[in-house]
Amino acid sequence: MKGKPILLYGDMHCGSISGLWHPEAPKGEGGKVGLNYNQKAMWKVWSHLLEERLPKRWPDGFPVAINMGDSIDGRQEKQKGTCTETTDLTAQTNVAIMAQRPLRDMVDDLYFIEGTPYHEGNDYLSGELMASALNGQPNQRTGKLTHRHLFLTIDGIRLFFTHKIPHFQIYKSTPLERELQRALRKTAMEYAKERDVLGFAHVHTHHLVQFPVGQHLKAAFTIPCLQVESQHATQPSLFNTLAHFGMVVIEIYGKDEDPPFAIIPLTYPVSIRKPKEYVYP
Predict the structure, then answer these.
(1) Which residues form the domain of 237?
(2) What is the pTM of this model?
(3) How many Å apart are CA 90 and CA 185, to the nearest integer?
């Protein structure tokens, strides 16, 4: 069954030493060009997605794509900028724009979701600049180019997207099921109860919860990220949660079809280098 594909990606964290970085973009004040070990692996996967995997499966492109936020890493106040390529937000934003230009060519309408203020700044200026440079769809309610919440209806399927959702170290599907259950309460707003699909980012892992409500399918999910585990995110434990690297595509078949939609993760095994082990004979 062929449906309308909706592409979702986010959490690029351009500027972080563990975030996506364009190989031709200069780093820091010295203007040095080059990628570290993790950035090389991430750029290889990003290029494979844009040049091979997406065009092969969806040769006609995407009617809608959504950048789910946190495209830049920000100034890293907590880490004093020690894990950035640069703390210059304009430079980080320019790298994010460079990375997304090939993707823009395969998308009709591109939307930008606001990420977290810690990374993007309280004014979300980076998102506005990206949306302007990449011809993002404007927010008709606020006049801005970015969206805090995005409501879409495509072939009768009602969708909702926002960046942030609570992060659980274990039981990672709990926040998703909670969002679905809240939307089904009798006291919920009508625009919430009628949503078929809820999409989130922020937690850097892909998880999906879906179940039938009467004859209707309801789903909530988080998308993978485009960053490997940062020092800030890594817990002081041997058993850390690894980030899921990639994107998600929602194929919309229509509200009268069975199934009405499908959530398709495009993930890759990209992770930090194995630690050095010192062996004594």
Answers:
(1) 4-268
(2) 0.91
(3) 43
